[in-house]
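ugh ok fine here u go
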Amino acid sequence: MIEMPPFFFFIAAAILTLVLPLTLRRIVLLTTPLLALVAVQTIPDGIHFGYSLLSQESHLLKVDSLNRIFGYIFCLISFLAALYALNNKDRLEQTSALLYAGSALGVTFAGDFFTLYVFWELMAVASTFVILAGRTVSARNAAFRYVLVHLFGGLCLLAGIVLRFEETGSLAVEYVGMSGFPALLILIGVAVNAAIPPMHAWLKDAYPLASYSGSVFLSAFTTKTAIYVLARCFAGVDMLVPLGVCMALYGVVYAVLENDFRRLLAYHIISQVGFMVTGVGLGTQLAINGTCAHAFAHILYKGLLFMGCGSVVLMTGKSKFTELGGLYKKMPNTFLFTLVGGLSISAFPFFSGFVSKAMVTAAGFEAHEYWAGFLLLLASAGTFLHTGLKIPYFIWFGKNNCDSQTWEKAQDPPLNMQLGMALTAFLCIFIGSYTPYLYNMLPYAEAAHAYNPYSLDHVSETMQILFFTALGFFLFVKKLTPEEKISIDTDWFYRKGGELFYAVSDTVFNTINDVFDRGFARKLPERLNYFLGKPVVFIFLSAVKLLLLLGVNSPEFQKLASWLNARHRSNCYPIGGGVLLAISFLATMSVLYLI
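structure:
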């Protein structure tokens, strides 16, 4: 038994990778997830590693069946992604990925909201550096936008935690529900990480710009930790049902329009997370089981799809459908692995999505939310359309749009990448074929085993949906051919809002700054210096100018003004003026003293 928090291994490994040479870093990348997996498996249910915070007992770890399944899959995908990324020598990405995985485990097993918040923000910072490891200008700009959005979400979460602590006096990670304004703030903070529209654009903006291996890590943790927190704190909150259904359809529509296949996969994360959000909103045992099962399956098949598409990016340098085609001849193994991911995400029988996604849909019908169930079925058809058919067809078949250089470079990736994809593909098939493996890990295991995904009704319904979707695709394949275009999304508002803020700042604030600079920073010190050097002359000449402005222009006054100017030029002033100034100063100070 390893009596150690699972996140400890990842954080320690992240520190080690800062100094270790490449060979040892690779060993650390592979062994760390396995050690953490043993810790997740052996640590008993309950609360562990207590500490005192704000005069109450808090705990680093709270372990039960709900978060243990997330711990399993986080460790498992960390190993598979590390195996896939072994040939990437980037120290920044390796360190950031380990810290990212560790902080996701920290959030998942946090026993109090303070611990959860610390790891929540650490996760945002670590994932930002994973994006930066893309080493391009676009990746840098996307990382900047990404961290700003997540800092906003983190501040909402922190404000909700603080206000809730004032109300309840408790920091325990437990059911929150819609119990007031603090709960709403916590929900908004979690919704940002769950990529619930309109707070979703950071995902499709940033994930495709990471490296070929960085995207695999990114696809696994942020949205799934948010799903865990929703399941823990907001199960049965009705408003999550329409939000989740909208997510499922929203992601499908934009995925169909997308030309960049990694952006398509990013949009489809939003769609698939929509199923999970819907399950949390339904809140029944079947729905929560479906949410957890689908999160587990989704991390595997989405990781596999990002591995396959990342291999295409690495070996060809292209990420757009309009620049590829016919690659099945050059990358046959990559095609087979990616096809497994596509069939899994499309809920094809004997693949992982078939035994997980349908639980959420069935829970919708069981709860008499028929509209939600039917719309999720529609989203499932859209999933098969763009991920199960569009990606394999336009990358590996269809019209060959590769230039000669791309075609020449194309080949299956290095062995470690193929092995990572092969193991992930095996798990996708194994989970879909042998349901007890997954169902035994679910929070409500008895309810899970009572559900039979391979009923005649479910199999026939699924095959009809898949058949008619495929028929429609091949009938209208010319209409579905990708085009080089831009799809406007909600990020348009903060992109244009940023430009507007810059324009306002440049025009208004810089004008104000210029006025203050000329009027105060330059002229005021100059006039003050003149006054302190020649106070008598300054007072008398100022009085003369004031009288001239008031219209006093008699010969006697003109004579006095000329005399003062002559005295000023010769630096010779009447002694009476100095005496008068001294008396005025002393009188003023006396009044101030008496006051």
